[in-house]
């Protein structure tokens, strides 16, 4: 072929590093013969919540279900409104809709791509002037690509307007803002353990973390049919349970999370250094934040041409996300239009996620950058 193929991600590399530990953990589950809500899930809930700096963790079936159940536990429901952003995976907005509430979208900070507190404040003032403030129940910021949202400003606004904050931390395991782990700021924090995440299992999984015992107990009811005792249902619940095998694997991978996040940060800096002066907008890290680089996303107005060129050279890239949620057909009933969120819409046409994962070699990064420079020249 004459060129080196660089995958967007290769999950087998980390697996090969820990495969003996993984097989041992899975064998332990099979030997015990309990596969749902057993000792492994309980232990992982305790370990991960402690890692996040909160008291309780409740393992669920996926990150989407974590968001949905967290909102339900917080009392969000029919007729309510939840403020979020439109440059996230659609699951963020779907979780809101599934509670019966309506998502309200605000624009993003031009540097970090996370919720713009100024846009949030403007929306809250506008809704209050229209007499609609009482319908807004919660704020759902997204720690996008591994970078924390500006939680100091968001929490201040939430307090002033008496709103609940539920964090979408599905892409930001271990990220910090002002020294605190994401997921520990809001009333509830939500995580996904999808295989490609910084802390990913070998299947679906998720968790809600909180400091409130009452909420953790409600979440445990909600995730398992509203069942307090066998066949005794105290509320209309759901079926969303992290399984024992995934929990056992995630317990192992949690031990490596900080190390892998540091590798991500180191690889991101290599990319940034090599791309300097090439006319791209690399990721920015807020001075109050510690980015964990779930993705390495650049911006260029010639995004489509660059992506096509790299594909020809065997370099896989992706776009996270090409269509803002507020313009998706699935949410047409909201009546949103092009131009409503100018920064979100502009960046959707410019962003490109380059190959990136902790085990990626420097020579692979060099290959990507070499081809980008070739395309420019």
Structure explained in plain terms:
The protein is α/β, with parallel strands linked by helices and 377 residues long. The chain folds into two domains: 242 residues, Aspartate Aminotransferase, domain 2, CATH 3.40.640.10; 120 residues, Aspartate Aminotransferase, domain 1 (Alpha-Beta Complex), CATH 3.90.1150.10. It contains twelve helices and 14 strands. Helix 2 runs parallel beside helix 8, helix 3 crosses helix 7 and helix 9 packs parallel to helix 12. The chain starts with 11 loop residues before the first helix and ends with a helix.
Features:
single chain; 377 residues; alpha/beta; Aspartate Aminotransferase, domain 2; 12 helices
Strand-helix topology:
Layout: H1 12-32, H2 39-52, E1 56-60, H3 63-73, E2 81-85, H4 91-98, E3 102-106, H5 117-129, E4 136-139, H6 151-160, E5 164-168, E6 176-177, E7 180-181, E8 188-192, E9 206-210, H7 213-222, E10 227-229, E11 232-233, H8 244-254, H9 257-275, E12 289-290, E13 296-299, H10 303-312, H11 342-348, E14 351-354, H12 362-376
Parallel strand pairs: 2-3, 2-4, 4-5, 5-8
Antiparallel strand pairs: 1-9, 6-7, 6-12, 8-9, 10-11, 13-14
């Amino acid at each position: 072929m004459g060129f080196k193929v660089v995958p967007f991600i290769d999950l087998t590399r980390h697996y090969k590093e820990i495969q003996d530990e993984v097989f041992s953990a899975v064998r332990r589950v099979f030997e015990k013969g309990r596969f749902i809500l057993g000792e492994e899930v309980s232990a992982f809930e305790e370990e991960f919540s402690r890692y996040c700096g909160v008291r309780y963790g409740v393992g669920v079936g996926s990150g989407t279900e974590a968001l949905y159940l967290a909102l339900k536990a917080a009392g969000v429901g029919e007729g309510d409104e939840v403020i979020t952003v439109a440059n996230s995976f659609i699951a963020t907005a779907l979780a809101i809709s599934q509670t019966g509430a309506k998502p309200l979208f605000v624009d993003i900070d031009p540097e970090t791509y996370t919720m713009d507190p100024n846009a949030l404040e403007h929306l809250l003032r506008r809704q209050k002037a229209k007499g609609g403030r009482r319908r807004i129940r919660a704020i759902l910021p997204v720690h996008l690509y591994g970078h924390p949202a500006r939680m100091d400003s968001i929490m201040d606004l939430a307090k002033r307007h008496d709103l609940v904050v539920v964090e979408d931390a599905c892409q930001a395991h271990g990220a910090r803002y002002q020294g605190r782990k994401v997921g520990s700021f809001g009333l509830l924090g939500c995580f996904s353990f999808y295989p490609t995440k910084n802390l990913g299992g070998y299947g679906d999984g998720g968790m809600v973390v909180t400091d409130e015992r009452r909420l953790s107990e409600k979440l445990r009811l909600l995730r398992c049919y509203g069942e307090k005792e066998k066949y005794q249902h105290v509320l209309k619940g759901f079926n969303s349970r992290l399984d024992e095998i995934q929990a056992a694997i995630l317990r192992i991978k949690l031990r490596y999370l900080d190390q892998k996040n540091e590798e991500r940060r180191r690889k991101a800096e290599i990319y940034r250094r090599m791309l300097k002066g090439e006319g791209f907008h690399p990721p920015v890290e807020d001075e109050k934040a510690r980015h964990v680089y779930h993705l390495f996303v650049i911006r260029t107005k010639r995004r489509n041409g660059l992506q096509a060129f790299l594909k020809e050279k065997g370099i896989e890239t992706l776009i996270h996300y090409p269509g803002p949620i507020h313009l998706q057909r699935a949410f047409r009933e909201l009546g949103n239009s092009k131009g409503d969120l100018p920064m979100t819409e502009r960046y959707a046409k410019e962003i490109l996620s380059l190959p990136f994962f902790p085990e990626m070699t420097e020579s692979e990064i060099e290959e990507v950058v070499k081809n980008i420079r070739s395309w420019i020249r």
